[in-house]
Structure prediction request, 244 residues.
Amino acid sequence: MSIKKGFLLLLILLGLSGVGYSVVSIFNGMKGYYESNKKYDAIREIYYKQKAPARQTSNLNNKELIALNDEYVGWISIADTRIDYPVVKTDNNDFYLTHNFNKERDKTGSIFIDYRNSVDQLDKNTILYGHNMKDKSMFGSLSKFTNQSFFEIHKNISFELFNNTYTWEIFSVYTDTDTKWLKTSFSTAEEFAKYIKIVSAQSLIKVPTEVDYEDTLLTLSTCTNVDEDERIIIHAKLIEKEGE
Prediction:
């Protein structure tokens, strides 16, 4: 075999090995998504069984979910998205980036509340984090809200926290590499009013909703997968509370 033919054969073999590696990587990624989604489907089954009209069990009394994870505090859902998940809280913002609801290592992670937030009563701004997964699971659907048409008919977020169900109306959607907007508390009403003004002005969509210093906020945050430091941030204000 000539040197030229040998070199060409080597290139072909290297190309085939690269393709093979890519196929294996894609397969492993899809398998990971499937296994993670299957686990969350099982958790949803428990949650909605407890929510059946005949039982009307409160979130706090959902002993099956608490038995699975004693850091379970609530549930978030948004219509026409894949956001329909349990919410957890621990003493840091790192653990649930790499662990699922069952506290197993899982790149999908969990939806979790900022460790600075209280779950005994609502802070002025409660922050929830979740990964932007390629299959649109977890907070992968948040990018939909940068579309004005989608936003117009999906303005509300449902978030249960223990015995209460809260409805929130979105008033700002934007992307940013700065994390200074991820604040949970404010020293004065003036500081909070300034915060509202700034984050409202950043919105990529037109929102007629008025927000003032008396309102209570919910913020959702996820990465964009474009820049490791860039996030999609959604702010919503509390408009309804059901429960105790």
Observations:
- The beta strands are 72-77, 84-88, 111-113, 125-129, 156-161, 164-176, 217-223, 231-242.
- The two ends are 83 Å apart (CA to CA).
